[in-house]
Each structure stands twice: as C-alpha cells, then as structure tokens.
C-alpha cells in the first residue's frame, strides 16, 4: 500500500473490531504517500511509543488536510511536530489518552475549520487564539476535566458554528462579543465554572439551535432568545438565574422548541401559559425555582407532542389547569411541593362516566402530586392504564385506601407512595406483578398488619398497628420497616427469605429472644431492632460472607 504514491484518501477505520498497527508499520505505510490529503484511522490500536506518531505524520504528509484518529487509537501526547502540517483543516483526535496541553502552534493553522479533542485527558491552559481563527467552524474540547481556559473577545468575522467546552475547567464570563458568532448553531458550555450574566448580545444569535449552559454559576435574568427561530433546546438548569421569564409573546415565536429545562435556579414570577402551547415542545422542566401565582388554562395545538411537565418545588397556587388533562401525549405530570388548592377539581377528569368534555383520556406513566393539598384520591387515576409511578404523599387524604388503587396502571405500577396522609385502614395488599416499593408510613393505619403476596420493599412505619407480626411475614418481604405498636415475638419465618435486604422493627413492643437464624443471614445490609423489650444473648452466628452494614443494638 505504501507504493500507492498518488493516493489522496486513506481510510483504515474500524467500527466493529480493534485491529493493531505498529509504529514501524505506520512509518513505512506513510513514508511514500506524499500526496495524501485525508487520513482516517479511527478505532485502530496504534502501538506507538512516545511522540513517534506525530513524527511519522509530519515527516511525510505535508499536504494532509484531514486527520481523524479517534476512539482509543493511542496513548501518547500531541507532538509539536504536527505544527508542520500547515494544510490541516480538520483535526479529530477524540477519546485518546493524550495527557498533554494543546500546542499553541495550532493557532497558526490558517485553514483550520474543525478541531475536535473530546475526552482526551487534556491539561494545561487552552490557547485563546484558537477561538479567533477566522476559518474555524467547529471547536469541541469537551470532557477534559483538567483543561483550563476562558473566552477571548470573538472577532466580527468569526465563522464558528459549534462551540463546546462542557465538563472542563473553563471559567470566567461570556463576553458580549459572542454576539459576533452569527453562524453559531450549537453552544454547549455545561458543567464548567462560568459565572456572571448572559450578555444581551446572545439574543442576536439567529442561527442558534442548541443552547446548553447547565451546571454553572450564571446569574441575572434569562435573555429573550426571540431571534433564533430554529431554537430546539434550552437547557439552563443548575445555575443561579433570577428574575422572571421572558413574556408570553416571546415563547409563541419558538415554534421548533422541543426541550426546556430551567430546573434548580431562583427564577420568579408567573409561568407563561404559551409555553405549554408550543407545537413541537416535548419536555418542560421548571422545577425547584420560585415561580408563583396561578397556572392559566392554555390552548392545545392539534399536533401537540408534550410528554413531560415538571413544576415541582415552586410556589404555584390555585387550581391545576384542566388543559393538562387534555394533552393526549402527556406521560409525566409532576406538580409536587407547591401551594395548589381546590385540587378536588381533579375528580372532574374521571372519564368512566358520561363526560362529554373529554373525548379521550390522557394516559400518564408518572404522576407526582405530593404536597398538593389533596383531600381525596383523584378519581381520574381509576382509568390510568400505563401508570408506573404514583406519589400522593404529604397530602390530607383521609379514610380507607380504596381497593381500586391496586388496579391503577393495569399491573404496570412499580412505585406507590401514600405516606404522610391521614389514612386509617385498608382491606389488603393486592398482588401487583411489577411493584417494587410501597410507602404507607406516617398514616393512622390500625388493626392487623397486612401481609403482601409479592416480594418488594414496604414501609409500614409510624402507624397504629397493634397486632403481632404475622407468623409467615418472612415468606414475602425483601425489605420491611414497621415502627408501630407491634407486640409479641419475632417469628422464625423472618429467616425464610433469601432476598431480605433490610429489616427495621424498631420502636415496637416486641419481646422474647431474637431468632438465632437472623444472625446467620448473609443478605441483609441493615438490621434495626432498637427500642423493644427483647431479651437474651446475641449469638456468635454471623457468617463469613455477612453483608451487614448497619446493626442497631436493642436497648
């Protein structure tokens, strides 16, 4: 192959295997290919010592324009000899262990259009001058957590389309000159140490499609990105943004917006209802901010694809809009930890009767209505056929747990949280094939403790059960927590389960001796029998492979 002296493109990349190419073979292969312009060796394991790979390239390939050697091809630093390749326009060295700084001489590549060095263990300080190369269109140096740097002033003639520095040590502010990047479509600066306010000039980035700035220390208000009509994603979570959102009219113009994530900021004011009416939006997460006021009803476009709405941890009040329950594709509605009132209106969405207002039923996969002042079980849950997660905790629901709650999801329910209500009773725990966790703690349940017929985690703690522990309870549970007024002894059946991971029977009135077999179990990681009336010795029966991490003594 080395005698193909007029070869201009060589692609030895491998997608499914990892062939080897020794250094001596690389030098021999390239030494005569002086007209080569494009070289692709992605996914090939180069058994190269030190800086010899760079020397092998620079000594022969003076006309090289494209260099692509990604996916764990080698583990050696970038050699300064690469700076001889002045014709380079594309450099792609992703996912190699370079463990070196980026050479300053890269700023001298006058034809450079694409530089991609993601996940390369880069260190040192990134040369600012590279940002200012007039021909540069793509710059991706993400996933290099030892790489320091900050932004320079961007020139007016910049052609940058993609700018990614996520998961690096970059810091400082975004300069107002970022507005000069008129061709910018992707701005990915997530999980860095940027700070300060977003410059108003960012609103002039008319070609912006992806905006990802999450996990930084940005402050101030969010600019009105009304100019980029093709904006698809706004991801600004885990910052320190304050102030209200842009006006409702601003959101109406973002017809291509799919993803909005502003969680964990300090944004105030009301939530514009027009945000829920966008025809392309699928995911809206405004949780854990300081939004207040009422949620207004909103228009639903015929083509709505909204699938997830998360408004938890705010100060929203009033009624939950009926519009949410007309969204045919909405699977997750998370409204916990707000100040809603009058949520009995949810009962109106029961379609089991003759309700002419709703021609079809919204099928949820996740419903979180914790801390929403609910007083009854929402009847609209009866007809949920695919619900897998239901959280009604920390409300004011009273009375008995209705039997129909076990039929919610048609067998798909795997998490049920009814804790911190005023529930007083239940008929029994019905078998649910996919249930993994049920939390009934901090209620007023009394009478005989129910025995489940499936193997899952169950929390009965802080109720009013006064009966003895069922003798066969150990045949069913993998985790149990029951801090009540339980009396009598711990049954021997507690040792029958091979999948027991945690047992908490503290704060009861149990008496007698602890079954010896309990100390011979190898599976549990937590055992708590504190504050009972147990007696007798603790035998030396712990197995060699005991996985116990927490042992609360009885006293």
TrEMBL record:
Signal peptide: none annotated. It comes from the Eukaryota. It is found in: Membrane. GO terms for cellular component: membrane. Keywords: Receptor, Signal. It comes from Ziziphus jujuba. The gene is LOC107418483. It is a single-pass type I membrane protein. Its main location: membrane. The lineage of its organism: Eukaryota, Viridiplantae, Streptophyta, Embryophyta, Tracheophyta. InterPro entries: Leu-rich_rpt (IPR001611), LRR_dom_sf (IPR032675), Plant_RL_S/T_kinase (IPR051716). This is Leucine-rich repeat receptor-like serine/threonine-protein kinase SKM1.
């Amino acid at each position: 192959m080395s005698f193909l002296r007029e070869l201009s493109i060589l692609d030895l990349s491998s997608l499914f295997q990892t062939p080897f190419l020794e250094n001596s073979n690389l030098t021999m292969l390239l030494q005569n290919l002086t007209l080569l312009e494009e070289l692709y060796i992605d996914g090939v394991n180069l058994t190269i010592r030190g800086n010899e790979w760079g020397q092998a390239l620079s000594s022969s390939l003076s006309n090289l324009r494209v260099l692509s050697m990604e996916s764990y091809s080698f583990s050696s630093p970038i050699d300064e000899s690469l700076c001889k390749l002045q014709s380079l326009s594309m450099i792609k060295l992703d996912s190699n262990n370079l463990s070196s700084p980026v050479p300053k001489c890269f700023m001298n590549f006058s034809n450079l259009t694409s530089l991609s060095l993601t996940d390369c263990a880069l260190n040192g300080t990134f040369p600012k001058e590279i940002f200012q190369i007039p021909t540069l269109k793509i710059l991706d140096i993400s996933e290099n957590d030892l790489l320091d740097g900050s932004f320079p002033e961007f020139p007016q003639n910049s052609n940058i389309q993609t700018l990614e520095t996520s998961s690096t040590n970059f810091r400082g502010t975004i300069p107002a000159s970022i507005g000069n990047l008129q061709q910018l479509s992707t701005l990915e600066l997530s999980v860095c140490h940027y700070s300060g306010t977003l410059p108003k000039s960012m609103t002039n980035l008319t070609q912006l499609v992806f905006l990802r700035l999450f996990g930084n220390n940005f402050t101030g208000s969010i600019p009105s990105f009304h100019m980029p009509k093709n904006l698809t994603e706004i991801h600004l979570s885990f910052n320190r943004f304050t102030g209200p959102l842009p006006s409702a009219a601003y959101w109406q113009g973002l017809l291509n917006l799919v993803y909005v994530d502003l969680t964990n900021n300090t944004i105030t004011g009301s939530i514009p209802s027009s945000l829920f009416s966008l025809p392309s939006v699928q995911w809206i997460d405004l949780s854990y901010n300081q939004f207040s006021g009422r949620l207004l009803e909103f228009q639903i476009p015929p083509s709505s694809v909204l699938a997830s709405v998360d408004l938890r941890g705010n100060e929203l009040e009033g009624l939950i809009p009926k519009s949410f329950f007309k969204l045919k594709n909405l699977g997750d509605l998370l409204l916990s930890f707000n100040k809603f009132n009058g949520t009995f209106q949810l009962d109106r969405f029961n379609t089991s009767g003759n309700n002419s207002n709703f021609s079809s039923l919204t099928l949820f996969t996740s419903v979180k209505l914790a801390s929403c002042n609910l007083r009854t079980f929402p009847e609209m849950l009866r007809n949920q056929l695919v619900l897998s997660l239901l959280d009604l905790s920390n409300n004011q629901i009273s009375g008995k747990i209705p039997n129909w709650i076990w039929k919610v999801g048609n067998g798909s329910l795997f998490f049920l949280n009814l804790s911190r209500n005023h529930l007083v009773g239940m008929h029994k725990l019905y078998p649910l094939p996919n249930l993994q966790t049920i939390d009934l703690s901090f209620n007023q349940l009394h009478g005989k403790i129910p025995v489940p017929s499936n193997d899952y985690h169950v929390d009965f703690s802080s109720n009013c059960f006064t009966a003895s522990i069922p003798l066969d309870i150990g045949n069913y549970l993998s985790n149990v927590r029951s801090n009540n007024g339980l009396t009598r002894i711990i049954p021997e059946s507690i040792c029958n389960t091979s999948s027991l991971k945690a047992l908490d029977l503290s704060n009861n009135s149990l008496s007698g001796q602890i079954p010896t077999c309990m100390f011979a179990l190898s599976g549990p990681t937590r055992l708590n029998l504190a504050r009972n009336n147990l007696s007798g010795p603790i035998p030396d029966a712990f197995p060699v492979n005991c996985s116990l991490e927490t042992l609360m003594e009885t006293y």
